Amino acid sequence: MIIPDDMVQSSGYVFGGEYNVDRYLRPSPTILDIGANIGAFSRWAGRHRWPQSTIYAYEPSVNCYDLLVKNTKDLPNVHCNQLAVGASAGRSFLYDGLHNRGMSSMVK
Length: 108
What we know:
The chain has helices at residues 8-15, 40-49, 62-72; strands spanning 30-34, 54-58, 78-81, 92-95, 104-107. The chain is an alpha/beta fold. The strands form 2 sheets. It has a 3-stranded parallel beta sheet with strand order 1-2-3, with helices on one face. Strands 4-5 form a two-stranded antiparallel sheet. The termini are far apart. The relative contact order is 0.20. The mean pLDDT is 82.
């Protein structure tokens, strides 16, 4: 997996079990990864936790999306979409890469 230096710590949390929910035992859930960033959660969920799942990963940032695709290309159950997800259409997307590669917000 390709992990930029500024994402190593947060990606480590994901692979360390940050999102592990032992109570959820369904073997093949449909998962929406909204704000998929570089794909750490999609990769962990699609390969290690729920390998029989179907994952729809959404990431609007070009830089993050490119890594999302690279990091999940060997997982046929992960479907990448370069889109923002919000309550309504017509909002503008603001990307601020100063503090974190994946920090972003939706503005009117």
